[in-house]
Amino acid sequence: MPSRTCGGKTPFATNAAVNWPNSTPLSHGPTDGRCTNRGSLSSVVSSPPLVTHSPSVRMRQNNAKTSLTQQKIQMKNNQITDCLQREFAGISSNKRHNSTLVGDSANSKNTRGSNSHAAKADGADIGSGMPLSQEDVLCALSMIIQKQNSDLDTRRSRLLKQRERDRARSAEAADSEADEQSTLLAEPCCALLHSLLSQSRRLWASVLSARLQVLKKELSHSGSTRVLDARGCSGITENRIVPDFSASSSSASSFNSDTSGVSNNSSKGQNGMEWSVEHLYEALVAGINSNATTEFIVSRMFNGDASVCDDGIDAFGLLTVFRAPVQAMLAQYQETLAPSLTALRMHFFALHPSAGCPRNTAFSNGETSEEAQERLGNFLKVGGSAPEALASALRGPVTPSLRRLLYARALQFQLFVAGDQSSPTDVGELKGSRYGDDIARHLSFATARSRECLRRRTHYKYLTKDAEAMARVLQAMIIMDNAQSVGDNDKYFIFLEETELLATSLILDRSVSDVQLKSTLMQMGRPPEQIHLLIAPVCYITGDTVEQYDIVSALFSQLWCRLQGPTPELLQCCWIFESLVARFAAPACLHATCALRFPPLRLAIRWMTTAFATLLEPAELLSLWDLILSYHVEEMFSTRTALSCSLGECSAAKGGKKSACAPSALWLLPLVAASIFVFRAPLVERCATADEMLHLFAQGRNLRCRPLLQYLLFMAK
């Protein structure tokens, strides 16, 4: 297959460079962040020549405007080069200072004084505008990145030690508690929610087990070499297997009959809902509303007093899908289990309308060279990779060329200088193009482990036949899901091959669950306990296949896996969504629940489990993910997180006091879902059927998340 650049597959990309007169080496090319003229770095500090004015008055005016724009760009370039020059001057000064240690002890003082004076003089000359060679620029850039990496490691190690001390203190406090109520108040929120979800997990496990049994039967009927190509091609023989679903009605019916506690649906749920989302919703709600969970709530939360569940509760379920005991528990421990609107306003005050609403610069309208250089200069300066600086950068206008670096830092990757990468390097299926200008494109975070994982994804050996059969079933599910979710999607079908490659590698990578997920939960103070649509948007961030896999695996291990099943995070998101919708769109919620028999939560749970990849346009989706990562950085490096706090600690949030616990970044998902539903609530009230309601929310081309969030949090009545 001929080599190609992944970045060129962006439908909004263009290969025409920006025609700045006498453009500087750091000027940008296409609006998607790729640089077409990847020149040398040797003239990185040279000044642009003066613009030659034409005798024509009109040309003089145009040249004056162009010269002004070019001066602004050059000013931003100078910020970057000044940063590099200062770093290189420090390197030179250290080298000269170290050289004074060599020599006779009698002449050491004179030598030290003369050499240090020379070092200062050289440093002043370098910092005053002396052109740096390409080797000098890469050396200075490498030192800046090494300092940022060292600072990240120091912060993380210090935080992990603090987590260990907090865990030891919590264990001592739990042993010293005498009564049951004190033990309950000292229990972490995540542990309590984990106990509440025991029945939901049991139902969900039975659903997945039955699903795998059906696929195993289909594999045995379909043959060992038949592959269903996502592009409609047939007759392809590979070492992959895809089941034949054309004659699987009997198997599907047997699967549905074996699933207890979950409504019987086909591969597509009722009213157009997908199979996995529909069954996840049913398992979650049925488990929480089960008698076993009710007994747990009454005995553990209310000391056996069941009468508390009947006071002032929506027992008829007009605005919620959860039963009275769950509603009573939320009413008593609201700030801990599902934060109120007042608490959410304090947690997300950085999104207040007074902070503005930055425009999206994903890849369509694109970034200007001035903006790109300013963001890159802020990233490279001292403290530019600190959690506070990263959060601020991700909440502002994120330029496409810098987004991959901000994501890498937010996900705690180690950056390194990749040397001279003046041309894309394609090795087999792995693409090697990186977005950015002459400075940003030299920075990478692609790890050797990920590269090896991508190459070895089809060469695994299994100890037993059952393990091999399970791997083949998972591979078949990946290919089918990829063909349906990405191949039929007008926003991501161009990344069909990349998503299959990344998903196949991800599903077989044991380090994601065994290493990365446990490390994330440990850092957050937690106990260590629709895939393709979450992968495809990453292809708009970077064209490097290894970098894509690093970002995808980190996003799954740190964020998305916490929503793929009956988890404490998903349950919290459901409660937050229902409370906001019932407050701001009660008539529409009542109409959808009672008249249409389609609760709004059934619609929102699909948006949240796919992080809105099914609804929003790619540019708006990446803007939302920027916000999520900005709060994820603060959550990962905060003193206490929301789910690691106990019921007693979170009681400080009542009465308008701000809680010391950092909010969960995933709380933005129910906020966005509620804001979209409230925005279209008048239209929901006019829907006569559930199909009309689904059609109303089928597309979100004109939706903008930041204004909707600001309205719901700070302006809605």
TrEMBL record:
Compositionally biased spans, kind Low complexity: 40-55, 246-260
SUPFAM superfamilies: Ypt/Rab-GAP domain of gyp1p
InterPro entries: Rab-GAP_TBC_sf (IPR035969), TBC1D19 (IPR042507)
Range of residues in the leader sequence: none
Stated name of the protein: Uncharacterized protein
Annotated region (Disordered), positions in chain: 1-55, 94-127, 246-270
Domain of life where this protein originates: Eukaryota
Organism of origin: Trypanosoma vivax (strain Y486)
Polar residues composition bias: residue spans: 12-26, 99-117, 261-270
PANTHER family per the UniProt record, alphabetical: TBC1 DOMAIN FAMILY MEMBER 19 (PTHR16110:SF1)
Lineage: Eukaryota, Discoba, Euglenozoa, Kinetoplastea, Metakinetoplastina
